[in-house]
Write a structure and sequence with these properties.
alpha/beta; Rossmann fold; 2 domains; four-stranded antiparallel sheet; 13 strands; about 30% helix; binds ribulose-5-phosphate; Ribose-5-phosphate isomerase A; Ribose5P_isomerase_type_A; EC 5.3.1.6; Ribose5P_isomerase_typA_subgr
Length: about 220
């Protein structure tokens, strides 16, 4: 069993009967959704899933997990999602899979947020992983110039055909190659205030529990 599968299965054990569960996106969240599907089928687990991407929605539906959108539930009990980086003070970068907008909306409406990662994602300071910024296509070239001027080393994310990758909301992603983010709160505020930016991948003070996959087994930290 690989580390992603191990933490995915461990995280699914936090899901109890009757819960509304935010279903994350990515190769780690994939295993958690598979395990929830198994529990629904084999154990009769009764849950409602709130997917954070069309890909997770399709997977969950295929497994027979009942699905609602974030607008169709009062709140989410627990969201389980992957992350691209987690710092020592438990801030995160997400959006490597381009699903940051729905992921942040679902996480913001969740009573508890649980991240599942392998040990390679745990870092001292955020920023080696390029920071995804979701932007409206109109004016995106202007934003690229603005970020260039600020020395943020922006790159428009492309799909396999070499065209701008479109998110589930038909926006673009600009990845900022910052190397190190020394002031994440200030950067988040700056990006929040930039016209044309829809959302960014800095997930600050959002996670309650982290399950890290280590070769010797999953290690769980309750951080809030
Ligand atoms: C998608 C995400 C993912 O959670 C993040 O990219 C981690 O993915 P993976 O588990 O495949 O490494 O934020 O937008």
């Amino acid at each position: 069993m690989n580390l992603k599968e191990m933490v995915g299965i461990e995280a699914a054990s936090y899901v109890k009967d009757g819960m509304v569960v935010g279903l994350g996106t990515g190769s780690t969240a994939y295993y958690m959704i598979e395990e929830l599907g198994r529990r629904v089928k084999e154990e009769g687990l009764s849950i409602t899933g709130v997917p954070t991407s069309w890909a997770s929605k399709k997977q969950a539906e295929g497994l027979g997990i009942p699905i609602r959108t974030i607008d169709e539930v009062d709140a989410v009990d627990l969201t389980i999602d992957g992350a691209d980086e987690i710092s020592q003070d438990y801030h995160g970068i997400k959006g490597g899979g381009a699903a940051l907008l729905f992921e942040k909306i679902v996480a913001s409406n969740s009573k508890k947020v649980l991240w599942i990662v392998d040990e390679s994602k745990m870092v001292e300071t955020l920023g080696a992983f390029p920071l995804p910024v979701e932007v409206i296509p109109y004016g995106s070239q202007q934003l690229l110039r603005l970020f260039e001027k600020k020395n943020y080393h922006p790159k428009l994310r492309l799909n396999e055909e070499g065209e701008p990758l479109k998110t589930d909301c038909s926006n673009y992603i600009i990845d900022l190659h910052l190397e190190t983010i020394t002031a994440p709160t200030e950067l988040a505020q700056e990006l929040d205030a930039t016209v044309g930016v829809v959302e960014h991948g800095l997930f600050l003070d959002m996670v309650h529990t982290i399950i890290v996959g280590l070769p010797e087994g999953p290690s769980t930290k309750h951080v809030r």
